[in-house]
């Protein structure tokens, strides 16, 4: 039996996003789901739950700096009503917290859908997990076909407010070697993100035995990327507990 999880979390103090209200589009539910056998909450449930909390916080005088969309049990891009949910969240943000940024965290491996791409364009910040310099490492880390990486790289290049979020790790595999970092930088130059965030920890989706590289190595990688690309790079040793 499914153990229901909260759709909306209490505001989280985030170093990167300020006081953030988190909305989980794939929080498992045991009723009011999309269809029999699914645990995805209906769009109406998501929107109503988020609206109730947003209005409560506004009337209480709380300052919300970001409204953050995540997926704890599957990528949020997988929700079939993503566009409807996003349009409602954006309207709620505009009415109750007009200065708040609407943010989206994704681990998607396929961004080909026109509707998904149009919807993601409604967000102020799109955070995409992307930590691989070679197709071999990508395939080993994700279980996807190695050819998917090149396609994903091309798809990600079209977003204006893209922020790449990367973990560097060692263990069963190592994406922090000079060769891996060099390959990663080439892909960054193709995607042209607005920012790059290097965070501690290991990919949430990985089943490998991994450990994060040292803060010193994180900073070395950040310095190399900034020098070679001119992109904005920041290191976050303590990843915010948003997802």
Write the layout of secondary structure elements.
Blueprint: E1 8-14, E2 18-24, H1 43-59, E3 66-70, H2 82-96, E4 101-106, H3 114-120, E5 125-129, H4 135-142, H5 148-156, E6 162-167, E7 169-171, H6 178-191, E8 195-199, E9 210-212, H7 215-229, E10 232-236
Parallel strand pairs: 2-3, 3-4, 4-5, 5-6, 6-8, 8-10
Antiparallel strand pairs: 1-2, 7-9
Helix pairs in contact: 1-2, 2-3, 5-6, 6-7
Verbal overview:
With 243 residues, the protein is α/β, with parallel strands linked by helices. The protein has helices spanning 43-59, 82-96, 114-120, 135-142, 148-156, 178-191, 215-229; strands at 8-14, 18-24, 66-70, 101-106, 125-129, 162-167, 169-171, 195-199, 210-212, 232-236. The strands form two sheets. An eight-stranded mixed sheet has the order 1-2-3-4-5-6-8-10. The longest helix is centred in the N-terminal third of the chain and has 17 residues, at 43-59. The protein is globular and about 50 Å long. The two termini are 23 Å apart.
Structural class: alpha/beta
| Rg over C-alpha atoms, rounded to the nearest angstrom | 18 Å
Mean pLDDT: 93
Helical percent range?
Answer: 25-40%
The outline comes out as: globular
Order of strands, main sheet, comes to: 1-2-3-4-5-6-8-10
The portion of residues forming beta strands comes to 15-25%
Order of helices and strands: EEHEHEHEHHEEHEEHE
Distance between the termini: 23 Å
Question: How many individual helices?
Answer: 7
Describe, in short, the structure shown.
With 243 residues, this protein is α/β, with parallel strands linked by helices.
């Amino acid at each position: 039996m499914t153990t229901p999880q909260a759709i909306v979390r209490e505001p989280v103090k985030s170093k990167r996003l300020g006081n953030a209200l988190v909305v989980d589009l794939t929080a498992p539910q045991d009723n009011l789901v999309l269809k029999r056998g699914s645990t995805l909450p209906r769009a109406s449930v998501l929107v109503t739950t988020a609206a109730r909390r947003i209005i409560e916080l506004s009337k209480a005088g709380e300052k919300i700096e970001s409204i953050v969309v995540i997926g704890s049990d599957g990528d949020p891009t997988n929700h079939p009503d993503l566009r409807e949910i996003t349009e409602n969240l954006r309207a709620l943000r505009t009415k109750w917290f007009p200065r708040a940024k609407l943010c989206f965290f994704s681990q998607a491996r396929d961004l080909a859908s026109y509707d998904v791409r149009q919807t993601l364009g409604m967000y102020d910040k799109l955070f995409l997990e992307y930590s691989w310099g070679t197709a071999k490492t990508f395939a080993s880390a994700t279980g996807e076909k190695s050819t998917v990486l090149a396609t994903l790289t091309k798809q990600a290049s079209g977003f204006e407010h893209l922020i790449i979020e990367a973990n560097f790790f060692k263990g069963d595999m190592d994406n922090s070697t000079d060769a891996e970092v060099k390959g990663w930088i080439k892909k960054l130059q193709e995607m042209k993100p607005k920012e790059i965030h290097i965070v501690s920890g290991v990919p949430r989706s990985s089943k490998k035995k991994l450990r994060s590289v040292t803060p010193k190595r994180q900073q070395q990688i950040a310095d190399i990327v900034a020098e070679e690309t001119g992109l904005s790079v920041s290191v976050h040793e303590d990843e915010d507990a948003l997802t």
